[in-house]
């Protein structure tokens, strides 16, 4: 569930590769984005039914192949790859995902912000990174004055 407000970046939808996907792929992508929760995760079968298509449909395969969306075998969810580039919310507007089991299969690149599938043996994603700062565990770092005194 989401709060109903989503942003879509021109940097993503105006890419020549995105446009080459055709009107159905572009339209499907828009529906997936507006249906996503605040981590960019969507239960996609209901969206595909709106378009009267399956996972084997060319528009869906195009979005997966060109890394606009990510699927994980065994789950009926997708992740919007560019989610964190397009949708960043103030703490009071976050509605966290309930799809945590699916989320464990994803990694968010610390430099680009894009999702990708987690490699075997790679450290698990820290869910804390997606939590609003007000709900994160308190840091145990020394305060600035304590660290100056110890030097």
What can you tell me about this protein's structure?
The protein has 151 residues and is an alpha+beta fold. Helix content is 35%, strand content 11%. The protein has eight helices and five strands; from the N terminus they run αααβααββααββα. The strands form two sheets. The protein has a three-stranded antiparallel beta sheet. A two-stranded antiparallel sheet has the order 4-5. Strand 2 and strand 3 (77-80) form a beta hairpin. Helix 3 (22-35) crosses helix 5 (58-65).
In short:
With 151 residues, the protein is α+β, with helices and mostly antiparallel strands. It has helices spanning 10-13, 16-20, 22-35, 44-50, 58-65, 83-86, 100-103, 144-150, and strands at residues 41-43, 69-71, 77-80, 106-108, 115-117. 35% of the residues lie in helices and 11% in strands.
Write the layout of secondary structure elements.
Blueprint: H1 10-13, H2 16-20, H3 22-35, E1 41-43, H4 44-50, H5 58-65, E2 69-71, E3 77-80, H6 83-86, H7 100-103, E4 106-108, E5 115-117, H8 144-150
Antiparallel strand pairs: 1-3, 2-3, 4-5
Helix pairs in contact: 3-5
Series of H and E elements: HHHEHHEEHHEEH
Residue share in helix: 25-40%
Q: Mean of the pLDDT scores?
A: 79
- In what range is the share of β-strand residues? 5-15%
Strand count, sense and closure of the main sheet?
Answer: 3 strands, antiparallel
Record keyword descriptors for this entry:
151 residues, alpha+beta, three-stranded antiparallel β-sheet
